[in-house]
Amino acid sequence: MTIFQFALKRSFRNKTNLLFLTLFPVGAIFLPASEIWPFLPFGYHYFGVLILFVSIRLASIMLEDRVKGVVKRLAVAPISHLHYLWQNLLAYMVILLFQCALAVGGGVLYGQELYSPFALFCLFVTFSLTSLALALAWISLFRNKETSFLVFMSIVVLIALLGGLIMPIEMMPAVFERLAVIFPTYWLSSGMKWVALGGQTTDILLIHGMLLLYTVCFLIIGSIRKIA
Amino acid sequence: MAKLARPSFYMGLWRIGSLFFLTVLWFIENGTKGTFVLVMLLAIMAALRWRVRLPSWTVLIDLCFCLLFSPFWMGSLYGLALPLVESLWRGRPYYCAPIPFIVFASEAATVHFVVFLLSAALFGAVVRHWQQQRTSFWREIDQERKARYELERLKIDLLQANSETAQMAELTERNRIARDLHDHLGHDLTGALLALQAYEQFQHGEQAEKMFAQVKKRLTRSTKRLRDTVHDMTPVALIGEQTIESITENFTYCPVSYQKSGNMDSVPVYLWSLLIPCLKEALTNVARHSDATKVAVHLDVTETIVRLSIQDNGTCSAQSKDGSGLRNLKIRARAAGGSLSVNRSSGYSIVCVLPIQERKEAR
User: What are the helix (H) ranges across A15-165?
Assistant: First the structure.
């Protein structure tokens, strides 16, 4: 578990990372709620976007490893690429889990209307997995850390918009409304709607299932070992 | 761009293309949210196939996914193209045997659908054939390369064996000369010496005369045998440096100036067998390809190396390449531990440098 511990330490060493990882989730707790839309307080509604940003921030450490030649050195070390990958991902997932718990727990204590905090927590955890896998797949395409981060930011804004996180999906043209299903963010916003308004259990199972399917797909794509 | 020449690249394109097609179909046909799961499942299988080499039977999983979703969305049957192409590409067409039955049993058996599946099958078969051909070509190229390396190895071994044989022949010849001198000359000279010592004792008289005659006879015989032995050893054919001199003298195409320096006897026999063809090749090239009017040949022998330089004043292009004769000589020079270099900057010059330490080691 050396890589796991090291990945945790590295994630907190950077000051910008520290800001992302602690201040923003805490800030999200105190954002007010809207009267009509979104159904959840603003801080929680946009928490998915924050998770996406945090994921790419964390995963870009692995990109840094590739650029600096750490992956090349690991290739000759008595450790498999799979070990390196899962221990890093586990460390990042622990951080994201902690953030989700902090945001949801903090909200409950602060007295925000979260309807079903546990269901919301589960949804955020599943989405964290998806976003981490997406970030992993994304960085496997790039060599430059800055480029990958900047392009990913614009992609995040786009999929957040098309997925119905920034504005209600019902307001969009019918074509975009159907197209939204393709993006993982759509399933997050549906999940949050389900948490707020309630619904059938099969619906939330489908939402979690779809997010997990995205996770598996992106993990497979991102797990390729690229020795640059 | 090397990846463009690989069938696997086009298989990857096909996978992405068919998943995109399925998504578009789902979009056009207003598929439900639940049926989009099929696209995701097929995408996961395709990603797995791209990432690791899955067993061929896994196409049955894709097949089952398509079948499971067909009651909810007829368009899912178009997804059958994926397992169809995969199984054909792997050379396991029997895994897609249920597809015709599924197609004709379902209501989706339109002409478009059948043509779509047939074209997918054709693509799979073509890629499979291409892959097989490519593999067999690579195998053939590898075998050819291996054979070429073995031949080169053999050639070097033979050249080394040649030089070793020459050295062995020289040693054998030296042994024979030593034996001849010992067997014929040695006995007679020893006898003559003993007779001369006896002659000293007798000084005068009949015995002394007899001894003197014997010494004379033995010395005469020894001289004759020595002459015979030397005569036997002297080869009829020209050897070594004499050959070089003779070649330069007999060259009629243009005047050849020949200069030599050093002790020619210190050059081992096997090196002459390399220097002579080198000179012959150079002069042949002059006669056949060059417009030279004079050639200068230098043969320098030092304690450690022998250097043969052939320089002409012809005008040759710097781009001209070495022929097979020169290439062969270069390999032979390398095998002997030396080198052969060609310079085209002013006229045409061949310099062959060979080491002669090995002979000392052989002694």
Answer: 15-18, 24-30, 42-45, 47-68, 70-76, 81-110, 117-139, 145-162
What is the spatial distance between Cα A83 and Cα A75, in angstroms, rounded to a whole number?
A: 11
> What's residue B357's pLDDT?
66
Boundaries of every domain in chain A: 3-224
Domains and CATH numbers, chain B: 11-109 (no CATH), 241-355 (3.30.565.10)
Q: Taking Cα atoms as reference points, which of A185, A183, A203 lies closest to residue A194?
A: A203
Query: Taking residues B212-229, what's their average pLDDT?
Result: 82
Q: Tens of pLDDT along B130-150?
A: 999 999 999 999 999 999 999
pLDDT digits (tens, 9 = 90+) for A67-96: 888 888 888 888 888 889 999 999 999 999
A interface residues, B as partner, C-beta within 8 Å:
178-179, 181-182, 206, 209-210, 213-214, 216-217, 220-221, 223-224
- Residue B51 touches chain A, beta carbons under 8 Å: yes
Q: Closest Cα of chain B to A94: distance in Å?
A: 25
- B137 at A interface, C-beta within 8 A: no
The answer to whether B91 touches B128, Cβ cutoff 8 Å, is yes
Helix (H) or strand (E) holding B52: none
pLDDT band, very low/low/confident/very high, at A179 (cuts 50, 70, 90)? confident
pLDDT of B319 over the 80 cut = no
Please report residues of A whose CB lies closer than 8 A to that of B41: 213
CA-nearest of B287, B272, B286 to B347 is B286
Chain B residue closest to A202 (CA)? B34
Least CB–CB distance from B47: residue in A178, A182, A220:
A220
Of A179, A214, A221, the CB nearest to B40: A214
Contact (CB, 8 A) for A11 and A61: yes
Nearest CA in chain B to A203: B34
Closest CA to B83 of B42, B50, B112: B42
For residues A107-117, give the mean pLDDT. Answer: 86
